User: What shape does this take?
Amino acid sequence: MSRNRFIDLVNEFCALARLDQPAQLAEGHAVEVDGVDFIFQYDEEYAPEHVMLYCDFGVPPEERLLDVYEALLETNMIVYGASSPAFMLGPDKRVTFGYQCRLADVRANQLIGILQKLAGQAKDWRTDHFLEASLA
Assistant: This one.
């Protein structure tokens, strides 16, 4: 049943966003929103009531890696809690933000709003990497 809800959500999202390949999005292909890539992940075995949204924040600046990673860890600490969103580092060294939504609670129009907000945050991060303006 939850898998069906995930598929319905993806189909509704694609219809609202005017995307023509919902099956690919449901299979984990990226979708671009405002210049930022997102991946939807659904795992019926481990989290059947949720969909994970992964937002590609980008590559941190090589010369400030320690500062950037420290800022990301501090941010994770602030938002820490059960099922909280979190920053992570992918195998390709890109910063990714993971955000969990309950399938029963999220609608396609809300999902678009979430992705637009996260895209704005990702673009802001690409400018200052959560570092103080005087240090960035």
Summary: The chain has a mean pLDDT of 93. The chain has one domain: 2-128. DSSP finds four helices and five strands in the chain. The first strand starts at residue 31 and ends at 33.
